[in-house]
Design goal:
Blueprint: E1 2-4, E2 12-23, H1 25-35, E3 43-50, E4 53-60, H2 63-66, E5 78-86, E6 101-103, E7 110-118, H3 121-130, H4 140-152, H5 158-165, E8 171-178, E9 183-187, E10 196-199, E11 205-208, H6 211-216, E12 220-224, E13 230-234, E14 237-241, E15 251-252, H7 254-259, E16 265-266, E17 269-270, H8 271-285, E18 292-295, H9 301-311, E19 319-321, H10 334-344, E20 345-347, H11 349-352, E21 356-361, H12 368-379, E22 384-389, H13 411-414, H14 417-424, E23 428-431, H15 434-437, E24 448-449, H16 451-454, E25 472-474
Parallel strand pairs: 15-24, 18-21, 21-22, 22-23
Antiparallel strand pairs: 1-25, 2-5, 2-11, 3-4, 3-5, 6-7, 7-8, 8-9, 9-13, 10-11, 10-12, 13-14, 16-17, 19-20
Length: 476
């Protein structure tokens, strides 16, 4: 029996490496995925290419769990490798949905890793199913694979197939694609998701979702891929195809607010610096008299520091985080989310007892986690709690790969700000404005998508079909 899943969507991390010689590219992929683990904690995988022979392993779990023991060594040597980490949703947390996706085709093997979400996935999938295609997974990546192989039959090269497939693909996608002889990276024309290129001293070329992955393997950052750009790496060298370039860039602003690691640099702007600025702007928009500023680990910490700098209110360490518990924002069920909050954070009583506390977090989605955190502070003796959020209220779903829920689960769609404040138990509540959040990454060479805050999306989104139409789970 198949039932439509009602969970929230995924956010992922991708990596690819092309080496001049057969080397341990699997180890490079492993180290890079470890650095990108924050982008996906449900499943992961690596594919290694040894002279056209693909060896892969993927499964549900963290990188160190999936590749424990001798699993990594079984992938062998190869000059090309790609990897992926994924956040899954209720009904989608299964090995079949783990990436990279490996395709066996008359034109040769193909492996794909994808970060993002297609707004026309259901239309494309329906088209291929009516032609006889049989889908094994419920993710957009398999739709992309059918699109690529369809065009591959008509074109003389895999890069031309990618170029023409991009006319069909609508939405967000940062891709690394491996053929028998080439590594290809591609970014959607709007540049919704980050994708960077780097190089290693031995002449290897690498691609990753964030620069922190380049740092982890000792790679030099070369540049961000342009929105719409396709880069082909092969034995003869590196080529750039820019047929789809030129559209206004609309990077997801939530990359700076929450998703990316603070030590990453996206589109020329330090994520750490952007979060500091978010805190500074929060103080300007929502000042308050208080004794201490604390942040919710991890993405609230930099914003709290920025708030402290701007306001002159002392910064304090308010929480100790259990590093062995994953991020709660994407926990598949409500019960799991609540249990994760209980296990994840413990208050340092000496920081907050008897004090007026400014609490900084990156977002309020359903409100459950925020209410629990406020209660932890109350129980530790906080006199007042002034909640500040480093992004605007979520009032719309995201169709481009960020795990923002549907409207019926968003607290800001059900209540106004004073009601939310009372519900979570705070003394005051202030969100960063839409104008403010678009100014936090002032050095970034891109524009921003703020559709989840405004309902105004950079491209057309489905009006009748749910964004998760083809996300199913199998029940016994």
């Amino acid at each position: 029996m198949r039932t439509l899943r009602t969970g929230i969507h995924e956010e992922c991390g991708v990596f690819g490496v092309f080496s001049p010689e057969n080397t341990d590219t699997a180890a490079l992929s492993y180290a890079a995925l470890f650095a990108l683990q924050h982008r996906g904690q449900e499943s992961c995988g690596i594919v290694v290419n040894d002279r056209g022979v693909f060896t892969h392993h993927k499964d549900v779990g963290l990188v160190q769990e999936v590749f424990s023991g001798d699993k990594l060594s079984t992938l062998g040597q190869g000059n090309i490798s790609i990897g992926h980490v994924r956040y899954s949703t209720t009904g989608s947390n299964s090995r079949v949905n783990a990436q990279p996706l490996v395709v066996r085709h008359i034109k040769g093997p193909l492996a794909i890793a994808h970060n993002g979400n297609l707004v026309n996935a259901h239309m494309l999938r329906e088209r291929y199913e009516l032609r006889g295609a049989i889908f094994q997974s419920t993710n957009d990546t398999e739709v992309i694979s059918y699109c690529l192989t369809e065009h591959r039959l008509k074109k003389d090269s895999i890069e031309r197939a990618v170029e023409h497939a991009m006319y069909d693909l609508k939405g967000a996608y940062s891709l690394v694609i491996m053929s028998a002889q080439k590594l290809i990276a591609a970014r959607d024309p709007n540049g919704f998701r980050p994708l960077v290129m780097g190089s290693l001293p031995d002449g290897s070329t690498v691609f990753a979702s964030e620069t922190c992955a380049l740092d982890a393997i000792g790679a030099k950052f070369e540049r961000d891929l342009l929105p719409g750009e396709i880069i082909v790496v092969e034995k003869e060298g590196i080529r750039s195809i820019r047929t789809h370039c030129g559209r206004r860039s609309t990077m997801c602003v939530f990359e700076y607010v929450y998703f990316a690691r603070p030590d990453s640099v996206i589109e020329g702007c330090s994520v750490h610096k952007a979060r500091l600025r978010a805190g500074e702007m929060l103080w300007k928009e929502h000042p308050v008299d208080a004794d201490v500023v604390i942040g919710v680990p991890d993405s609230g910490l930099d914003a709290a520091l920025g708030f402290s700098h701007a306001s002159g209110i002392p910064y304090g360490v308010g929480f100790i985080k259990n590093r062995y518990v994953g991020r709660t924002f994407i926990q598949p069920s409500q019960k799991q989310r609540m249990n994760s909050v209980k296990l994840k954070l413990n208050v340092i009583r000496e920081t907050v007892e008897g004090k007026r506390v400014v609490l900084i977090d990156d977002s309020i989605v359903r409100g459950t986690t925020s209410a629990r955190i406020v209660r932890l502070l109350r129980d530790a003796g906080a006199k007042e709690i002034h909640f500040r959020v480093s992004c605007p209220p979520f009032t719309n779903p995201c169709y481009f790969g960020t795990d923002i829920d549907s409207r019926e689960h968003l607290i800001a769609c059900q209540m106004d700000i004073p009601e939310i404040c009372r519900t979570i138990g705070a003394d005051s509540l202030g969100y960063l404005s839409v104008d403010g959040v678009q100014q936090i990454a002032e050095d970034a060479g891109c524009g921003f998508c703020v559709g989840c805050f405004t309902g105004n999306y950079p491209i057309g989104v489905p009006k009748e079909q749910p964004k998760d139409k083809f996300e199913y789970r199998i029940e016994a």
